[in-house]
Specification:
Shape: rod-shaped
Helix content: 55-70%
Number of domains: 1
Distance between the termini: 32 Å
Strand order of the largest sheet: 1-2-3
Strand content: 5-15%
Structural class: mainly alpha
Order of helices and strands: HHHEEE
Oligomer: single chain
Bound molecules: zinc ion
Length: 127
């Protein structure tokens, strides 16, 4: 659970770790993209019979992997950025200096300096 992780390691380290992991997903996605293009370029799909079906099936699997890897990158990255956007205490203005309540959704944060409480990691209401 993300709350427990934020509680154990401080917010700045948690955010850094999330960005690192999300870009690892993005790098994997790009590697699959290169593999996809390389298969089309060097192997091609001009075979007849079973090889044509096989190469198209492999390209299909790589395409699915590209979509899934990009989805994982985007989910982790956007959540980390959403939390970072709401990590500043509205009362005293300190950034990332808060404790979180473990095991709750949404994530409740309590400032370590002034005890102000707020919710992090949620879209702000617009309108
Ligand atoms: Zn504060």
């Amino acid at each position: 659970m993300q709350n427990r992780l934020i509680q154990q390691i401080k917010f700045n380290r948690w955010h850094e770790r999330q960005l690192f992991l999300s870009f690892a997903w993005l790098l994997s996605c790009l590697m699959c993209g290169f593999l996809f293009v390389a298969i089309i370029e060097f192997v091609g799909v001009n075979f007849s019979g079973i090889f044509s079906i096989l190469s198209i099936f492999v390209l299909y699997l790589i395409g699915i992997a590209i979509i899934e890897l990009f989805r994982r990158f985007w989910m982790r990255f956007s959540f980390a950025q959403l939390c970072a956007n709401s990590a500043t205490c509205n009362s005293c203005g300190s950034y990332g200096a808060f404790e979180v309540r473990v095991g709750t959704r949404p994530i409740y944060a309590r400032c370590q300096k002034c005890d102000h409480q707020w919710v992090i990691g949620q879209q702000k209401e617009r309108g």
